[in-house]
Amino acid sequence: MGELVDFFVRSRNFILFVLLEVLCFYFIINTSNYWSVTYFNTSNRYAAQVLAWSNAANEYTSLRQVNADLALENQRLNAQLTKLLQSKPVAPAEYRADSAFADRFKFTAAKVVDNTTQFANNYITIDKGTDDGIRPGMGVISPTGVVGKVKVCNRHFSVITSILHSEFLVSSQLVKAKDIGSAKWDGGDPHLIKLNDISRYKPVSKGDSVVTSEYNSTFPPGILVGRVYSVGVQPNMTFHDITLNLATNFSTLSYVYVVENRLQGEQEQLEKQIENEK
Fold first, then answer.
1. pLDDT at 250
2. What is the structure's pLDDT at 58?
């Protein structure tokens, strides 16, 4: 307490000067319309700037919740869109999709907690496991395209085999050419992937979209894989050399959707039975 008193005694002249300055400023503002308006406008401008900074800070801190809410909304919209597309496919007029078939895909939103892109075989870890209905073999997509397939799970986490894996194949279809091939990463650029088995005699356009085909039980058809980046033909080869720009940016991947095909087991069991009979 004595040190505080000593400080005021030593600084009394400066403190008096400041108080007089404040008093003068007060009288100027209250006795002059020009300075009163100027002070009012200036103070409002700075107050508005401080408020804008405060709002920006609050919005930034709430981004995690906003992203989570958007992920859940996308989950709902994905389910609705997939059901609609499966119930009304491009088919003869007399065809009617079975209701169970049209409603076979279920989506679960999950947060990415670990992700690699620098290896030949990359994996992703998400915060959903068997307690959330996740099991090995389920497909995984992002808001923009294909991500991979669930490899192993425990109660609260799952590890996904990324599409950036040397042994991962996706049955894919060119939207314009309608030709079907398989997309596979060559272990190079994590933004590019190869599309194989497309005949060199089929017309392929740069920029054409490539989506998941009807011929797999893991992903819903029509999920974007990428877009044609380059098209070439290697000597003495019967197929195009096609490179795609991947639809999913794995360096910024935050949320994914695990896709459950409720009829997958039934389909695969029947197909396996046919294979055993050959």
1. 93
2. 56
